[in-house]
Amino acid sequence: MIRHRGMTRRQTLLGLAGIGAFGLPGRAQAADRLSVVTTTGMLGDVVTRVGGAAVDVQSLLGPGLDPHAFRATRSDIVAMARADMVVWHGLGLEAQLVPFMEDLAAKKPVIALGEAVPQDRLIPHDEYADAFDPHIWMDPGLWALAAAAAHDILAEARPEAAAEIAANAETYLQDATRVGAYAREVLSTVPEDARVLVTAHDAFGYFGRAFGFEVLGIQGISTESEAGLNRIRDLVDVLVDRRIGAVFVESSVSDRNMRALIEGAAARGHDVAVGGELFSDAMGPQGSYEGSWLGMIDHNVTTIAAALGGRVPDRGMDGRLSAGL
Ligand SMILES: [Zn+2]
After folding, report:
1. What is the pLDDT of residue 297?
2. 77 C-alpha to center of ligand 1: Å?
3. How do residues 265-310 score in pLDDT, each as one tens digit?
4. Are β-strands 214-219 and 196-201 bridged in parallel, bridged antiparallel, or unpaired?
5. CA dist., res. 164 & res. 54, Å (int)
6. Which of 9, 84, 161, 280 has the most C-beta neighbours closer than 10 Å?
7. Average of pLDDT values for 15-23?
8. Which residues contact 273 (CB under 8 A, 6 or more apart)?
9. d(CA 278, ligand 1 centre) in Å
10. What is the 3-state secondary structure (H, E, C) of 127-196?
11. Nearest 10 degrees: Cα torsion 199, 201, 202, 208
12. In whole angstroms, what is the distance from residue 145 CA to residue 18 CA?
């Protein structure tokens, strides 16, 4: 079991207070785009869409990459050093980056956007006191709070673009409301006793809370903890006893443990299908609909509902999902 540095306390919204100290751009720079480096693709999505033409965004973590295990490469460090602003998630997600971000915050605005969510709406970490489950993008209601915070930060950094940034943020919030309503609708068609989500790690706690699903991860809230044999054996018991027919793999996590789970259930005469691949901690392919936060949530909701016996529209909320669900 690897203990994370910095996991035992909530990070502050580093740099929020610091924007003033670093000054607003002068007239000469007003036309310049604010260069922003984000860690996860989900953060990149919100900053890109809310900032619009006022920002130039680079995300360090592409499809399939795991933020829990993320260590900045040389080129990542160069990118962050050159950026006007760095946006990371915080809440212990990028556990290995904490000391680096603390140092960087002395030099430029460093925003832990995930920490814009009020503490009373966060799920406490099951192992560490004063730490929280970081996977807030799974609940559109919470992710809307991160988008609202992105609006405030970007509008302050680029006041000349404030009207456009406000309009962009409004559109993003509308999308969040719409996908939240879609999720409630299709997930409510899943038979009540099938509302159990078995995944590779505990990324779906907020999803489960928002939409009334029980969530069982093989690994804990971080992928950096080892899944014990006991955990796999216990979950096999749950699958067999409750006749759970489908489990889910994740695009950013190895499916090794999931295969062990399925084999364990099969050895006891219970067949479990892979219900599909979910986008837990990284979005889908760049440039695709699933490579956006909206598409990621649509994909997850539609895949989960379909695999667990619910009724879903063909190709999701807007008919934009890739075929082959
Ligand atoms: Zn995770």
Report:
1. 98
2. 22
3. 999 999 999 999 999 999 999 999 999 999 999 999 999 999 999 9
4. parallel
5. 9
6. 280
7. 45
8. 245, 246, 247, 307
9. 12
10. CCCCCECCCHHHCHHHHHHHHHHHHHHHHHHCHHHHHHHHHHHHHHHHHHHHHHHHHHHHHCCCCHHHCE
11. -20
12. 20
What protein residues have CB closer than 5 angstroms to ion ligand 1? Answer: 203, 281
Distance (angstroms) between ligand 1 centre and the Cα of 143 equals 15
Give me ligand 1 centre to Cα 142, in Å: 16
List pLDDT tens digits, range 240-250: 999 999 999 99
Number of other CB atoms surrounding residue 63 within 10 Å: 16
pLDDT at 28: 41
How many angstroms is it from 93 CA to the middle of ligand 1?
A: 7
- The pLDDT score that the predictor gives to residue 108 is 97
Separation of 283 CA from ligand 1 center, angstroms?
A: 12
Contact 39, 97 (CB under 8 A): yes
Tokens read off for 277: 């691949």
Q: What is the pTM of this model?
A: 0.90
35: which strand partners?
56
Residue 309: phi and psi, rounded to 5, are 95, 15
Q: What is the pLDDT of residue 13?
A: 52
Q: Is the dihedral of CA 22, 24, 29, 33 positive or negative?
A: positive
Query: What percent of the chain stands above pLDDT 90?
Result: 84
Q: pLDDT at residue 199 above 90? A: yes
Which amino acid is present at 61? L
Residue 235 structure tokens: 């979950």
CA of 99 to the centre of ligand 1 (A): 20
Q: Residue with structure tokens 């979910």?
A: 278
Distance 266 CA to ligand 1 centre (A): 27
Q: How far is the CA of 189 from the centre of ligand 1 (A)?
A: 27
Confidence grade of residue 4 (pLDDT, cut at 50, 70, 90): very low
